[in-house]
Amino acid sequence: MPPALLPGYPGPRHWHRVPATGQHYVDTGTGSPVLFLHGNPSWSYVWRHFFPVLSPHVRCLAPDLPGLGLSPRPPVPGSPLDRYTGQLDALDDLFAHLTTDRGLPGSGWTLVMHDWGGPLGVAWALRRPGVVTRLVVLNTIAFPWPPGYRLPFYLRWIRDHAPVAALVHLTGAFPHAVARLGVVRPIASAERRALLLPYARLRDRRAVVAYVRSIPRDAHDPAWTLLHAAGGQNGLADLEGLPVFLGWGLHDPVFTPLVLDAWRKRFPGARVHRYDAGHYVMEDAAGPLVHDLRAFLLETEGR
C-alpha cells in the first residue's frame, strides 16, 4: 500500500510480517513491549497518534488482525468460536515470532485493547499467564454484557439477518458508517480514506461482516468460554492486581458508560479517564488520551 495514502502512519521501514501467517504489524520504538489490539472494522492505522508520543519510551507493536487491515485474507471460519480461536492462534504466532526472531522479552507486556481487541487480548493474556503485566482498556468488553444492556439495533440486524449482512458486505456500508458515526468530531478526509482503504474491494472485507455476526448476545454465548482458558479458570479475576488504565469515549453507542461501570467494578483500583469522544476514542481524544496513557506507562513501568 503506498505510504502517501496513509498520512500519519509509520513508514514501510516499520512494517513487518509474521513468517508463519503473513500477518502485518507495525514495530516502532524502544523499551518494554506494548501490544496494540484494534477492533472491527478498523486496523493498526487507528494507533498512528500514539506512536510518535510513546515510541521514545516503549516498543509499540501494532498488528492487523487476520482478515483486516494490511494482513492476508484467509478463509473466514464458519463457526464464531473458530473465528475467535483463530485470532488467538495468530496472536500466539506473532508472540513467538517477536520473542524468538526479534528478541523481545517473554514477559512484561502491556496490552492496549479497543473493541474486539478487548475479548481477544484478555483471552490471550489468560492463555499466556505471566506475559501481560498491564492492561489499557479503551471502549471494549471482556465479559458478558452487563444487566440492562442492549446491543444497538443495527448490529442486531447484521448479526441475526443474513440478507442484511449480505447487503452490508456488498455495499461496504459498515466501515463507512463507523468512520463517520463512531466519532463526535469528523476525521479529516485524507485520514478517513486511509482508515477505509483496506476495505475498498469486496473480497477484502469478508471478515468485517463475519465478525459483526460473531458478537456475543448473552452470557451463554460460547465466546465467553475463551475467558476461562487453561491458566485462566477464573476469567478476569486472574488478572487482578495488574495496573489497569480505563480510557472511555462517553458517546459510544455500543460500549456505553454502563460497560465502563462494569469494568470499574471488576478493577476498582483502575485509573479511569473519561473523554468527550465516540467509539473511536483514539481519534476524538487523541491528544489527552495519549498524554494520559504516557503518564500511566511511565508511572507503572516495572511494577
Describe the structure.
With 303 residues, the protein is an alpha/beta fold. The chain has one domain: Alpha/Beta hydrolase fold, catalytic domain (Rossmann fold, 3-Layer(aba) Sandwich). The chain is 35% helix and 15% strand. The chain has 11 helices and 8 strands. It has helices spanning 51-54, 80-100, 117-127, 153-160, 162-171, 173-181, 189-196, 206-212, 257-266, 281-284, 286-300; strands at residues 15-17, 24-28, 33-37, 59-63, 109-115, 132-140, 244-249, 271-275. It has an 8-stranded mixed β-sheet, with helices on both faces. Strand 3 (33-37), helix 1 and strand 4 form a beta-alpha-beta unit. Helix 2 (80-100) packs across helix 3, helix 4 packs across helix 5 (162-171) and helix 5 (162-171) runs antiparallel to helix 8. The longest helix is centred in the N-terminal third of the chain and has 21 residues, at 80-100. The protein is globular. It starts with 14 loop residues before the first strand and ends with a helix. 44% of the residues are buried. The model has no long low-confidence stretch (mean pLDDT 93).
Strand content: 5-15%
Through-space gap between termini:
39 Å
CATH superfamily: Alpha/Beta hydrolase fold, catalytic domain
Give the overall pLDDT as a whole number: 93
What's the CATH architecture? 3-Layer(aba) Sandwich
Count of spatially separate domains: 1
Low-confidence sequence ranges: none
- Count every helix, treating DSSP H or I runs of 4 or more residues as helices: 11
**What is the CATH topology assignment?**
Rossmann fold
What structural class do helix, strand and pairing data support? alpha/beta
Largest sheet properties: 8 strands, mixed
Query: Fraction of residues in helices?
Result: 25-40%
Specify the CATH class: Alpha Beta
Total number of β-strand segments?
8
**How would you write the strand order of the largest sheet?**
1-2-4-3-5-6-7-8
Order of helices and strands: EEEHEHEHEHHHHHEHEHH
**Dominant shape:** globular
CA-based gyration radius = 18 Å
